[in-house]
Amino acid sequence: MSEMRLFVFGLGYAAAAFARTLSGRAAISGTTRDPEKREALVAEGINAFAFDGTSPSPDIPDALRDSTHLLISIAPDESDPVLAHHADAIRAAKNLRWIGYLSSIAVYGNYAGAWVSERTTPHPTAERSVRRLAAERAWTKLAAELNQPLAIFRIAGIYGPGRNAFVNLAESRAHRIVKPGQVFNRIHVADIVAALSAAIDRPAAGVFNFADDEPAPPQNVVAYAATLMGVPPPPEISFAEADLSPMARSFYADNKRVANARIKQDLGVSLHYPTYREGLAALWREGTWRV
Description:
- The protein is α/β, with parallel strands linked by helices.
- Helix content is about 35%, strand content about 20%.
- The protein has eleven helices and 13 strands.
- The chain is globular, with a radius of gyration of 19 Å.
């Protein structure tokens, strides 16, 4: 097979971690908003371009022209910024063989704590989730037009090195907010990377939930991290009394348990960190929680 040439729109936390694992087996290009991060990515051997989603980048069409794989990790605004500014360049990528779109489990909306799967009808509640579902459908339309496989990855709350409950505790930003019956799924960034690797190698098509095995109350996660750190957990606060921003409060409007059987059955993925306990314990044991 000819060399993989991957273009990533949005080299953020998870997408950049995935791109780094392909070093040596693929040519990697992509975008970032941050000029300093762009310099760091270039130093790592990634052909990085500036793109803030508000206007097209003149250098991107040439990089896309020879791309074989495309991964999108930019959240939509009123519309999808990649499609708004670079759809024609994607259409001109004659060597393209696969498209992946990083979405969110938020598109399912509120299912009152019931289990949802890829077959569940999405009913997004927040405006940002409505836009995310619209972006999924726009990418589905373009992929069909190009006759290319499209994999949509609906991702739960991401944690890993530098982004976890330990950091929040160390910076006095951790809270134990209790809303009876409320649960959330999470997923370690290493498991996202493993699942993306399996998907791109197949190549996979369709919708996949990236989530752990155990949806859990958020206050339990903070308490477990505090135990590992050997520090007192913050006091529990009822959701009704919590001083939350409108954005933070909106996350509690949706309550569901997200099934992940498809990544195991169709992608052959075995989670390294099936629950938050394994993930947090490894971060603490290995000393990588601050990174």
